[in-house]
Design brief:
Glutamine Phosphoribosylpyrophosphate, subunit 1, domain 1; eight-stranded mixed sheet; binds 6-diazenyl-5-OXO-L-norleucine
Length: 580
């Protein structure tokens, strides 16, 4: 593989933990390492799809993607347009103040990389920054306000995608978003629900309240949300690329606003931000090639671990509760490993080879009893305690066969609910994805340990799992928001893909989830029959029916046998999937 690199890029093999002290020093350097992990042959695609497809969480974003394809852009230009449009019309979920992972497949040479645009902790961050002098967690400090925000990666990723992979100028791909920011768009019921959830926090940031609320109160459905400052920020990126965000007047305003509100950003933080091109995590499950998110996402490793465990069972021959029991036990074990081993690979040694090996999974499988749930407390791990929810995913396939699966986030709905005045940029609260104290659960109840402790310049561990599946005939592009549940949603969809189901079914599927701690199986209404819940409870599982459905999966399927392209958007959300 011959990676194309840019001065702003690090290319690293997945899991090649650099290890040792002072690794943060490496963060600003140009390092070129050719990938060795899971070396899949990469070659030009020999077939092209009969149609292009875009699936995203908002109709205006799906349309912007297709418009850019029609204007001569490729899937990577369309990804810039969709990502930027979502920053405008779905400000609850992602944006310029956040980060994310972009899984790319380039048809011309088969090159596959994960563009890591994850946020980084500020250089003045430290492990105990959310604890008081007694070592107790300061309530909400990692959730609301300027101190909760890590250094954004999405603007850098947009500039990198356009310059390294796109065909159109960045300004062209950003144009639809700039227009929508300036002219406004009508807010929908989903927006209002999340604004209600974050109302008090939004009111504490005058700049955020002025944009996202109407005179300090919830707007009515159909209210036209205009974001002139955000339009100017997008224009700054359109005009100056990476530097339009990370240097110059916008950078100064961001830093001033954060510091005035008690945050710790510096210009050095912004100047030092780099995207990283990483080797995706690879796996294989019953003839399906899995290409998925690498650390600092936990998603790919956990997904492959679960599939490796499940590969040892004849799942399709089992009764529903027997199958669900084994899937739950696989989830429990993969999430335990997440808590114990995973963190930013530039700071912590991630034992990738072991965690991804079928032999390791066989050991985990051997300890699963078909008749009994394993209490999580019996697995050596980390002790814990609790859980909230936005983020966004989109999938793109162009007519040349280029593919993008991107999951982008500002973490909780409206991120930190903080906007530095005059910038139009709502900042993330991704610092909460770190383990702020060993054994203390984050907003998703996820526990962690030293590998995911806060350190200057470090990326918080994520669950975002943009994924490609390829069984030789069919190719799937998928992902979803949903915090800790993302990985199990992608797992259930992958199992459904394996059964031969179409994308409409993967995105609509009733979902269940186990994440090691808390030791409960939570499930959407309608997932299990009464008999099935009884059978699972009899094995010792604690079951919790959720009041609300979760997830917002966006998926594309290209069936190369009959060269048909189909796409689906999760019925739980307001998104659209269109093939053209
Ligand atoms: O990176 C992560 O795992 C989280 N920040 C994602 C948050 C999320 O999906 C919220 N969505 N509903």
């Amino acid at each position: 593989m011959t990676p194309r690199t840019a001065p702003s890029t690090l290319v690293r093999p997945a899991g090649a933990g650099i290890g040792g002290v002072g690794r943060a020093l490496l963060a600003g350097l140009l390092v070129l390492v050719t990938g060795t992990h899971g070396a899949f042959a990469q070659a030009a695609d020999t077939q092209t799809p009969s149609a292009a497809a875009v699936a995203s969480a908002h109709p205006l974003a799906t349309r912007a993607g297709h418009d850019i394809l029609q204007a001569g852009g490729n899937a990577f230009d369309a990804a810039v347009a969709v990502g930027a449009m979502l920053a405008v019309v779905e400000p609850t979920g992602s944006g310029l103040g956040g980060g994310g992972f972009w899984l790319l497949h380039r048809a011309a040479d088969g090159r596959e990389i994960m563009l890591d645009g994850r946020e980084r902790a500020p250089l003045d961050a430290h492990a105990d920054m959310y604890l008081d002098t007694d070592g107790a967690v300061i309530p909400a400090a990692s959730i609301n306000g300027a101190l909760a925000s890590a250094i954004p990666g999405t603007p850098a990723a947009l500039a990198h995608l356009a310059s390294q992979y796109g065909r159109l100028p960045l300004a062209r791909s950003l144009a639809p978003a700039i227009h929508a920011a300036r002219e406004g768009f009508p807010v929908d019921a989903h927006y209002l629900q999340l604004a209600r959830f974050r109302l008090e926090a939004l009111r504490r940031s005058p700049a955020a309240a002025a944009i996202f609320l109407d005179q300090g109160d919830l707007p009515k459905e159909g209210y036209i949300l205009r974001q002139p400052d955000l339009a100017r920020a997008l224009e700054s990126i359109a005009g100056h690329g990476h530097a339009g965000f990370y240097a110059g007047p916008l950078a100064q305003d961001l830093v001033d606003g954060v510091r005035a509100a008690g945050g710790i950003w510096s210009l050095r933080d912004l100047a030092g931000y780099r995207v990283v091109e990483r080797e995706p995590v690879r796996g294989e499950y019953r003839g399906i090639r899995i290409t998925t998110a690498a650390p600092p996402s936990s998603g790919g490793i956990a997904l492959v671990t679960m599939l490796n465990i499940l590969a040892g069972y004849p799942l399709e021959d089992l009764a529903a509760p027997d199958r669900a029991h084994l899937v739950i036990e696989a989830m429990r074990r993969a999430y335990r490993d997440r808590a114990v081993y995973l963190g930013d690979p530039d700071f912590t040694e991630v034992p990738m080879e072991v965690l991804l090996s079928p032999a390791y999974a066989a050991g985990l499988r051997n300890a699963i009893r078909p008749d009994r749930a394993t209490p999580s407390a019996m697995l050596p791990g980390v002790a814990a305690d609790a859980t909230g929810t936005d983020t966004t995913h989109f999938s793109i396939l162009d007519r040349a066969g280029n593919r993008v699966a991107a999951t982008l986030s500002i973490n909780l709905p409206f991120g930190a609910a903080f906007m530095p005045p005059g910038t139009g940029i709502l900042l993330n609260n991704e610092m909460d994805d770190f383990s702020i104290k060993p054994g203390v659960g984050n907003s998703y109840g996820l526990v962690g340990a030293q590998p995911n402790a806060i350190a200057p310049g470090k990326r918080p561990l994520s669950s975002m799992t943009p994924t490609f599946l390829d069984d030789g005939r069919r190719i799937a592009i998928l992902g979803t928001p949903g915090g800790s549940r993302i990985i199990t949603m992608v797992l259930l969809a992958a199992l459904d893909f394996q059964r031969g189901a179409p994308p409409r079914e993967w995105v609509g599927l009733r979902r269940y989830h186990h994440q090691y701690l808390p030791d409960v199986v939570s499930y959407e209404p309608g997932t299990f029959s009464a008999d099935e819940t009884a059978a699972l409870a009899a094995r010792g599982h604690t079951l919790e029916e959720r009041t609300r459905p979760y997830g917002n999966m966006q998926a594309i399927l290209w069936d190369r046998a009959d060269n048909r392209v189909s796409a689906a958007s999760d019925p739980r959300g307001g998104g659209t999937a269109e093939t053209r």
